Amino acid sequence: MGAEAGWDHAADAVVVGSGNGALTAALCCHEMGLPDVVVLEKSGQYGGTSSISGGRVWIPNNHLAAEAGASDSLQDARAYLRAALPRTSRPGASRPTCARRRA
Ligand SMILES: Cc1cc2nc3c(=O)[nH]c(=O)nc-3n(C[C@H](O)[C@H](O)[C@H](O)COP(=O)(O)OP(=O)(O)OC[C@H]3O[C@@H](n4cnc5c(N)ncnc54)[C@H](O)[C@@H]3O)c2cc1C
Fold first, then answer.
1. Does 52 map to a domain?
2. What is the distance in A from the centroid of ligand 1 to the CA of 19?
3. What is the per-residue pLDDT across 34-83, written as a single tens digit (0 to 9) for each?
4. Which of 11, 16, 26, 92 is the most buried (most CB within 10 A)?
C-alpha cells in the first residue's frame, strides 16, 4: 500500500520510541538494507530514559566480563537489584530475574 491507498507515508520499517532499544532496532533495520526506516517518538524529545541513563549497559554475570577476568555472580546481581529496586526487596515479593545466558 502506498499514497494511493490514502497513507501519508509508506516505510520499510516503523520503530516506535527513540530510546536505546528502538534506535538500535532502527539502525539494525537500516544495516540490513531497509532504505526507509521511520522512528516515531511520542514525547517532545528523542532519547527516552536512555538519554538520562548512565550510558553503560549492565549485563550482570556475563561471559565476556568473566573471560576478561572480572569477578561477578548472580548472587551479587540479586543483592544489587534488591538494594536498588525497593519493590523487589519487600518480603514476599518475587525474586529479581537473573539468568546466565550466552549471547
Ligand atoms: C537515572 C538513570 C540511570 C540509568 N543508568 C543506567 C546505566 O548506567 N546502565 C544501564 O544499563 N541502564 C541504566 N538505566 C536504565 C536504562 O536507562 C533503561 O533501562 C533503558 O534506557 C531503557 O531503554 P528503552 O529503549 O527500553 O526505553 P526508553 O529509553 O525509555 O525509550 C522508550 C521511548 O519510547 C517512547 N514511547 C513509549 N511509548 C510510545 C508510543 N506509544 N509511541 C511513541 N513513542 C513511545 C518514550 O517516550 C521513550 O522515548 C538508568 C535509568 C535511569 C532512570
1. no
2. 5
3. 999 999 999 999 999 999 988 788 889 999 989 999 999 999 998 888 88
4. 26
Query: Domain for residue 67, yes or no?
Result: yes
CB 11 within 8 A of CB 38: yes
Residue whose C-alpha is closest to residue 19's, from 36, 37, 40: 40
Taking the C-alpha atoms of residue 20 and residue 23, their distance in angstroms, rounded to an integer, is: 5
Atom of ligand 1 nearest to the CA of 57: 11
Q: Is the pLDDT of residue 4 over 90?
A: no
28: containing domain: 7-45
Q: Which atom of ligand 1 is nearest to the CA of 51?
A: 29
Residue 51 inside a domain? The answer is no
For the chain, the domain total comes to 2
